Amino acid sequence: MSEFDDQFDALIEKYTELLLGESTSEKKEMVTRYALYSFIAKNMPALVKHWNSLYPEGKADMKEMVEQIKEWNRIHREQTKGKGDS
Q1: Out of the domains of life, which is the source (predicted)?
Q2: What is the spatial distance between Cα 59 and Cα 71, in angstroms, rounded to a whole number?
Q3: Which terminus of the chain, N or C, has fewer Cβ atoms within 10 Å?
Q4: Is 84 left (phi over 0), alpha (psi -120 to 50) or beta?
Q5: Is residue 72 within 8 Å of residue 23, measured between CB atoms?
């Protein structure tokens, strides 16, 4: 891996850790896909709509992944709530 690859991987790892409370390779991959899908959906919604219609099972998988990330984030926020208030 190049130096940039290592640096970018560190960014994704830290983002995953801050979002979910921990950074495993599986969670990093999920967060990377979630972030890219979200970016494309905001910038090219017609492309995502087209992809969703071509690949309904992919859309369902993405929806499930987003829900899992949201749940992990909710749990992480609840666990860290009040820790910085001491």
Answers
A1: Bacteria
A2: 18
A3: C
A4: alpha
A5: no
- In whole angstroms, give the CA distance from residue 85 to residue 3: 37
What pLDDT is recorded for position 84?
Answer: 60
* pLDDT of 1 strictly over 90: no
pLDDT tens string 18-64:
999 999 999 999 999 999 999 999 999 999 999 999 999 999 999 99
Q: Write down the pLDDT at residue 85.
A: 56
